Amino acid sequence: MDLVVLRELLQPVIGSLGSGNTHATLGEACERLGLPTPPEEGTKHERVSASFAALPDSDLPLVARRVLADVAMEARARNAIQDVLWAAESPLVLPTRTRREIARVLDLADVVRSPDRFMALLSRLWVLDDDSFVTLFNPDAGLRGRISRHVIRNPGDWSTEELFDNLGVFEASDRRFALFLEGLACAEVVLDEPTQRAIAGAVNPHLRDVGAELRETGIAGGYPVFSVVSTRSQGNRRPKNLIFASPTKPDIRFRDAIDNEIEIVGDADAVLVYDRPIGADGIRWCDLQAWWKEKHGFQGDDEAKRTLYGRLRRSLPENSPPQILLFDLYHDIFRASVHELPALLPEVWLHWDPKTAKARGKEALLRFRMDFLLLLPRGQRVVLEVDGSQHYSSDGRPDPTAYAANMRADRDLKLSGYEVFRFGAADLQDHPQTRTMVQRFFEDLFRAFGVTDLRTA
């Protein structure tokens, strides 16, 4: 990420805080964006400038994301800041040729059924207005006016390719183009499920040629949600069963094998089964808490939050203090924003076999359960493993066989579309350096996977 450019782009936006606040409210406004507390002396502009100058480069991405969420600015400045942030996310590569091929197969009539919704999508992603003298007296001379005239009022004047050309779609960042495709197939723009699916069906042959797909990843308001995902692995599938928070093998049977409905037999309270649709945002703590609250009929959010946290923590193995510490640190470090962050799901069952590993023999699956799973936006899956000595030794002596088995299991997970990150038990000891390391890891992880709003305690 180019932090020098990011600071230059943020400078005028941050400077505008002075005009929108009094001296009394300026400190709170700065702190809300993650800026240092401004000095008491000086003009508002001087105080804001001093605060921004004191901001470490490492905190610039966090402040930028909060600025984008909370501060009104011109679309050109917004897009420039977004593109710097997105450049660090290693997005899919969507070449110009692919974009032109998609433009030639997309029918504008499908996506402009609701002109207001269509224009709202364009306004969120593209620069439609400028401050030139000409457009001040003749709004139709600007891009917004030309789109209104040639696309909405006179359908057929412009082809989809001409619209894309005028918007700057062919030169835009890969992430912006992916979001544009997702928006064109979104129910907020196209209130018709068959048309949503027709749009996805039209663009996917061209996306698949470059290792991508506009795939259904969830449901919102009864309509499918489509996300641009990679097809280079088996990842980004839509989860069907999430069985977690159980350190012992659950007793499972199929209630309806055709519909893939499972039932926990016996001690059902010893295992949790998340049975709600998982949308494009993955599973956030707020999703898990809402499910838990409804499941148990709690009246207040505080009770639901407290009891859910306690239930998840009790599922962690007592003989693994490092695993417990990682769980506690995640929620303590990010407690200011954890409500909207991915839920750290403990003891998640990946494989389940009615036979024991001994009975299954050489065909036994290598890993039954994951220490932690994060279901991130756009179908991304991240596994966190905490390795005790049993992962690489036996009876206190190095065990190459145990180590090799873990590496094979990791390879299988990665080929199935999971990203695997390992912590050594020695990494997770109760001292200040551990907290710093864990915070930096999650900040870097979420930045790489496009998760925003990382407010730390």
Give a topology summary.
Layout: H1 3-15, H2 23-32, H3 44-53, H4 60-70, H5 75-86, H6 96-105, H7 108-111, H8 115-125, H9 133-137, H10 143-153, H11 160-167, H12 174-184, H13 193-208, E1 212-220, E2 223-230, E3 242-244, E4 251-256, E5 261-265, E6 272-274, H14 285-296, H15 301-314, H16 321-333, E7 345-349, H17 357-360, E8 369-375, E9 381-387, E10 393-394, E11 397-398, H18 400-415, E12 418-424, H19 432-448
Parallel strand pairs: 9-12
Antiparallel strand pairs: 1-2, 3-6, 4-5, 7-8, 8-9, 10-11
Helix pairs in contact: 1-4, 1-5, 4-5, 6-13, 8-12, 14-15, 16-19
Spatial gap, N to C terminus: 24 Å
Characterize the overall form.
globular
Main beta sheet: strand number and arrangement? 4 strands, mixed
Number of helices: 19
- The helix-and-strand class reads alpha+beta
Low-confidence stretches: none
In terms of quaternary structure, the protein is single chain
Output the radius of gyration.
25 Å
Helix content: 40-55%
Strand content: 5-15%
- Kindly state the number of beta strands: 12
Strand order across the biggest sheet?
7-8-9-12
Mean pLDDT score, rounded? 83
